[in-house]
Amino acid sequence: MTYSPTQSPLVTRRAFCGGLAAAGMMAALPVSRAFAQGTYPERNFRVIIPTGQGGGAERLARAFDDAWSKLLKRQFEYTFHPGAAGQIGYELFVKQREADGHNLLFGNMGPEMIMYAVQKPNYRFPEDFIYFGRTDIDDSCVFVRNDSPYKDIKSVVEAAKKKPLNVAVSRIPHPASIGMLALGEATGSSYNLIPYGGGNPTYVAVMNGEADIGALPITGVLSLTSQFKVLGVFNKENIFAGITENAPTINSAFGSSIPDLYSSRAWAIHAKWADAHPENFALLQSTAEQAHASAEFRDGFVKTGAPVESLKFGDRQVCTDYANAMVELAKRYEPVLSAQR
Amino acid sequence: MSEDASRALRERRNARLGADLIIPVLATGFTLYYLITSSNLVWEARANGTVVGVTLLTLIAIQVARVVIQLRRSTGSLGFGDLGRWTPAQAQRLMLIATLIVFVITIPWLGTTLGLFAVMLAAMWILGVRAPSTLLGVALGVSTTVYLLFIVTLGARFPAGPIENGLAPLFGGGL
Amino acid sequence: MGWDSALFLSLFTDSLMLIWIVVPAVLLGIVVGAIPGFSAQNTLIILLPLTLTMDINVALAFMVSLYCATHLGGGIPAILVNMPGTGGAAATTLDGYQMTLKGKAQQALVLCFVASTVGGLVTSLATVALLPYLAQLGLYLRSVEMVAVMVFGLVLIAAIAADDPLKGIIAGFFGLMIGAIGTDHIYGTPRAAFGFLELYDGVPLVPALIGLFAISEAFSMMERSTVVPRSSVVDTKAQWADTLDGLRLSLKYWWLTIWTSFVGLVIGVVPGAGASIASFVAYQQARMFSKTPDEFGKGFAPGVVAPESANNGVTSGTLVPLMAIGVPGGSTAAVMMVVLQYHGIVLGPRLFIESPNIAYGIFFSMTLSYIVMIFTILPLARYMSQVVLIPTRILVPLILSLTIVGAFANREYVFDMGLALVFGVIGYIARKTNYHVTAILIGIILGPLFEQYLLRSLRIGQGDLTILFSSTTANVLWGFVVLSVVLPWLRGKQQERQQRNLQDRAPAALTGDQA
C-alpha cells in the first residue's frame, strides 16, 4: 500500500461503500512517483524489521515514520523477518535488498550487535551496513510483578546468593541478560536465565510467576506499570526515578562498576550507498533528526504507553560507537552467550 | 479364482518393500546429518534433536527388520510398486514437477501474473486439455483474478514481472 | 469486569451498526482463509495502512471479522480437496475429505460451517461472561503445563495411524525431526538448516502444509477424472436435502460442538499455542471420549465437528490476553495491538473500566461476525460442493499453481515455493507408501513448540526433571495423557476378549446344531 495513514481522513461507511476495491484504488493514489524522477528519494522506502510484528520495534517505527514520511514525502512499507535473534533480517537486508537508499532496516542495536558478535554471521559491520538514526535509549532493568516477595533489588541479590534465581529474559544474547550475569559476578549471586524469545512472552512469564524476576529494556515494562515494579536499572542514572518509585541504579546499590547496558533502536542503511551518495545520506540523516524532534513523533510515541524521556537521537558516529562497544562487551561474555562448545 | 483375485494375491505377495523404505532412507539421511552437524553444540541445543533422532533411527531399524523378515519369507520384493512403474500418469506427474520447478525458478523474472498464466497453460496441456478456449480461458481467468484480487486490491507483494510493472502506473498495488 | 446486561445489550446493538464493514470482512476472510498461504495475520498486515485510517471501532470490527472468517474458510478446501487452507484446518482433512470421497461433501461443509460458527459464537459470548477468569487461566497454563498439552497432540500421531502404527510413528518422528530444524530456543544457534537462511527460523508451516497436503494430493488426484466419481454425487440430486442432512447431523453433535469449542478457547488463551494445536487436541479428545473411536478417520461427522469448533473457539481465546493484560497471545492479536496502540488505547485491566465499548465491543463484533457468517455461508454449501466435480485436468493445475503462489505469500520468500514442492514430493511418496502425512505434519507443528516448552521447563527446574510434575494443573493434564493412552488400549483388549468369546461360542453352537 502506498498511501499514508495520516493523509486520509477516517474511513466512514460512505467512504467504504465503493467496496473493498476502493483499497485498490487508494493504492494507486500516489502517482506522484512519476513527477519526482531523479530527486532522492524517488520512491517509497521498504523497511526490514528483524523482529516480529506487534513488538516494540514496529510501534516505534510507525510512530517515527508518521513524522519522517512527511519530511521525505515518501511512505514506509514494512516487512518482518524475525528469527535467529535478528540474523535473518540482517542477512536478508545486506544480501538481498538493493543498496539503493530506499531499503532500510530498523533494528535494536544492542541485542542484534551482541548476536553479531556471538553468531558471527555472513555480513560485516560497519562495512556492509551502518546505523545512522538512533531513536531511543532504553535502559535494561530488573523487574518483578507487583505482588512479588522481592520488594527491592537487595532482597533479590540476597535470595540469589542462597540459590540461583530464575530470570525471564527476551534472549540470552541481550544487554539485559549480560546485565544479570554481570550483577551475579559483582555480588556473588547467581541467576538462571530463561529466554522467552521476545518481550511479550517474557512479561507473561513474570506475571504468572514462572520466573522469579525479569530483565528487559525498561520502556516496555513501564507501559505495563499496573502489573510490574522496577527494582533496578543498569545505567548511571535512573531517568524514570519518578515513575519507578525511585528504583536505584544497580551500580549505586552494590558499588559495582557494570557498564551502562541499554538497548537502542536505530535506522540502518547499506554502508556502500551512504558512502557513495553523501548528499542523499545527509538528507536522510538530517530529516531523521528533525522527525525525531517533532511533536508528532513524540505524541505518537507517548500513545504507545512508553515514556518520552527515553527518546534520544544519535547520528551515524554515535551509533557506530555504541554498536562497537556492544561487540566488545559480547566478546567478554561469549562463552556463556553461545551454544558452540 | 478370477484373474483379478489372483493378481491381487500376487501383488500382496510381492509387497513393494523397496518403496516402503524410501521415507525411512530419507529420514535416516536427515537424522544423521542433524546429529553430525549439531554435535559441537551444548546439550540444550541438541538434546531434543538427539532424543527424537535416536528414537527415529531405532524405529527405522525395526521397520528394516520387518522388511528383511518379509523378504526371507518371500512375501515381498524390493520393488518400488507404482512409484517405480512407468505409466502415462507417472510421466505426466514428472512433467508437472518439472514445470513447477521451472515456474519457481522463473517467477522472479516473469512475475506472478505471467508465471501463473504460463504454468496453468502448461499444466493443463500436460494433463490433456487441448481445447484452445479452455486453455486460454482458464489460464487467463486464474492469472487475472490473482492479479486483481491479491496484487491490486490487497496489495500483496508477490514477485513482480513485466505485467505487474507495466500496469503499476494504472493500478499500483504491492510494488 | 462483571456481567452487566444493559451495557452488553447496548454494546451488541452498537455492533449491529457495524454490519456494513463486517459483511465484506467476512467474505474476504473466507476467501483468504480458503487459500493456503494466506492467513488473517498476513492479510491484516497487508491491509494495515487501511485499518489505521479507520475509526477504532470500525477497524476492530473489520479485523476481528476477517480473522474469524479465515478460521472458517480454511475448512472448505480441507473438506473438498484434502487441502487445509490454514494450519487450524489440517485436522479437518482427516474426516472431512473422507466424507467427500463418500459423496457427502455438502454434509461435511455444513458440519464445518455450523461447528465453526456455533463454536465461535458460544466462546465469544462465554469470553464476555468469563473474562476475568479466562485472563487468570492464561497464567495457570505455564511452560510445564504446556509440555503436557503438547504430549496430547503427540499421542494423536499413534492414534491416527492405527492400521500400521509403526509406519505412523516413524512418520510422526520424521516430522518431529524436521520440526527440530532451525535455531535452538536458548542460544539462537542454527541447526541442520542446510545453510539456508530461510530455514533458520525453523521449517515454515505454510509450505509444509501446502506440500504435504495440497501438492501431494493433487499428484494423486490426477489419476482420477474428478475428485469424486460423478456417479456417487449424481445419486444425491436433492441438494437442499443434503444441506438439511448436514444441519441434522450438526444438531446431533451439539454437545461435542460446545465442549470442543472450549478446548479451543482455553488453548487460545495461552500465548504461543494456537489453532493448529487446538484442533488436533480437540480431535484427539473427541476420539478418546467417543463410543466408536474406530469410526474416526473414515468420514465420521464428529471428526469434522471437533477440530472446526475448536479452531474457531481459539479466535476469542487469543484476544483475551491482549485485552485483559495487554500482551498479544498470537500473531494476529499482535497486529490488532498495533492498531489499538496507534489510536492511543492503553490495553490491560483498566481498559474494561475506561473504555468498555472497545474492551467488550471487540467480542460483540466477533459475535456479530459469526452470525453474519452462518447466514452468508450456509446457502453456499451446495454450490461449493460442486468443486469436486471439476475435471481434475483443470482442478489439479489450479491447485498446484495457486498453492505454490500461496506458499510465497506468507513470508515473501521464493525459497518457500521450492520448499512446498519438496514437501509435495515427500508427501506424495509418503501417501503412496502409507506413511501418514498428517502424522508428519503434527510432528512439524508440535516439534518446535514441544522443544521450546520442554527446554524452558527444564531450565526453570534447574536440571530437576520432577519440575514436569510440580503443579496440580500439570498433574491433572498428565493424568489425562495417561488416560488417553490407556483407555483405547483397554478398549481394544475388551473388544478382543468379546470377539474371542463370540468365536468360542460359535463352534459350540455349531456342534449343538449338529447334535
UniProtKB/TrEMBL annotation, chain A:
Task: Name the domain of life this protein comes from.
Answer: Bacteria
* Taxonomic path: Bacteria, Pseudomonadati, Pseudomonadota, Alphaproteobacteria, Rhodospirillales
Keywords tagged on the record: Signal
The record's annotation in Pfam families points to: TctC (PF03401)
Family (UniProt): Belongs to the UPF0065 (bug) family.
* Position of the signal peptide: 1-36
Q: This protein is called what? A: Uncharacterized protein
Checking InterPro entries in the record gives:
BUG (IPR005064), Bug_dom1 (IPR042100), TAT_signal (IPR006311)
User: Would the keyword Signal be found if you checked this record's keyword annotation?
Assistant: yes
Q: What PANTHER family would the database entry show? A: BLR1237 PROTEIN, TRICARBOXYLATE-BINDING PROTEIN
Please tell me whether the keyword Signal is annotated for this protein. yes
UniProtKB/TrEMBL annotation, chain C:
Is the Membrane keyword given for this protein?
yes
DUF112 domain location is 21-441
Q: Where are the transmembrane segments?
A: 6-32, 44-67, 108-131, 143-162, 168-187, 199-222, 253-283, 319-340, 360-380, 387-407, 413-430, 437-455, 467-490
Keywords, in A-Z order: Membrane, Transmembrane, Transmembrane helix
What the entry lists under InterPro entries is as follows: DUF112_TM
- Protein name listed in UniProt: DUF112 domain-containing protein
Its organism's taxonomic lineage begins at: Bacteria, Pseudomonadati, Pseudomonadota, Alphaproteobacteria, Rhodospirillales
